[in-house]
Design the sequence.
């Protein structure tokens, strides 16, 4: 048992509790703030798993950009995007679906959970240089394609907004 | 579940794997529950983000367990994809619900163009 056991457990607990907060908070602003806590705790877990660069990406891209974007949109929605309470039928369906998913994943992962992990890999194997060699070597085409994906997403978002505004003015 | 984690610890292997596996599974299940429970499009999108995070956690754990860096690369790509998904999803949510006070994914909305 190495020294990362404690931060790892704390990170897992915070991630789970804040995920519950995202789902259960009544106001979307609170959900977005819980999502911020969640993404930071996931970044901490990445650090514990010696994924330094991914952790940094999680903090800057996820906590810094995506969650802030969520907060902006929540503030733009009328009434802060308040919603009506979910009926009992909806809650039952959601809980059953969640339980079935959990069961399915538990069954699928049973062997892995039972067997534990193999020998620990040295942290040096996950240095940023190694990641860069992989990202710009074998994975170059997927990496370049993400640029196209981002461009398409930006154009899509802008055009959705523009066309809808034009419709409204007519 | 706790017994399983302890079994993993006693086997002399890394305790990180079972714990993170369980966390990831629970996070994904929470995301599915939220996706179906909430009516607000924002909360639905946030539940999707929870599920993406659970998947990312599993990718990074896989990289550590197998000693291969590919998992980190895949996690970075998932990060980019979730950013793109958030942009389009939020634009749709804004277009559909900016005039209506009770945002509800079950109600009919109209997008033209």
Sequence:
């Amino acid at each position: 048992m190495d020294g990362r056991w404690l931060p790892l457990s704390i990170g897992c607990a915070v991630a789970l509790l804040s995920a519950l907060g995202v789902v259960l908070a009544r106001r979307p602003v609170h959900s977005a703030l819980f999502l911020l806590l969640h993404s930071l705790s996931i970044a901490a877990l990445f650090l514990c798993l010696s994924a330094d660069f991914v952790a940094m990406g999680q903090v800057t891209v996820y906590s810094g950009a995506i969650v802030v974007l969520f907060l902006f949109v929540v503030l733009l929605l009328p009434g802060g995007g308040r919603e009506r309470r979910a009926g009992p039928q909806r809650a039952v369906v959601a809980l059953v679906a969640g339980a079935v998913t959990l069961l399915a994943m538990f069954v699928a992962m049973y062997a892995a959970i039972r067997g534990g992990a193999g020998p620990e890999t040295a942290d040096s194997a996950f240095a940023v240089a190694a990641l860069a060699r992989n990202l710009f070597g074998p994975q170059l085409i997927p990496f370049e394609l993400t640029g196209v994906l981002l461009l398409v997403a930006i154009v899509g978002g802008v055009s959705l907004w523009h066309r809808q505004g034009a419709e409204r003015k007519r | 579940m706790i017994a399983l984690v302890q079994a993993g610890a006693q086997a002399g292997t890394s305790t990180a794997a079972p714990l993170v596996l369980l966390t990831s599974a629970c996070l994904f299940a929470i995301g599915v529950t939220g996706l179906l429970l909430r009516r607000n499009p924002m909360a639905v999108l946030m539940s999707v983000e929870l599920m993406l995070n659970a998947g990312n956690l599993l990718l990074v754990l896989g990289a550590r367990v197998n000693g291969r860096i590919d998992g980190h690369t895949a996690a970075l790509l998932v990060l980019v994809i979730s950013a793109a998904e958030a942009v389009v999803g939020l634009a749709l949510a804004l277009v559909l619900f900016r005039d209506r006070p009770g945002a509800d994914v079950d109600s009919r909305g109209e997008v033209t163009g």
About this structure: Residues 70-97 of chain B form the longest helix (28 residues). The radius of gyration of chain B is 18 Å. Residues 6-13 of chain B have pLDDT under 50 and may be disordered. Chain B is about 75% helix and 0% strand.
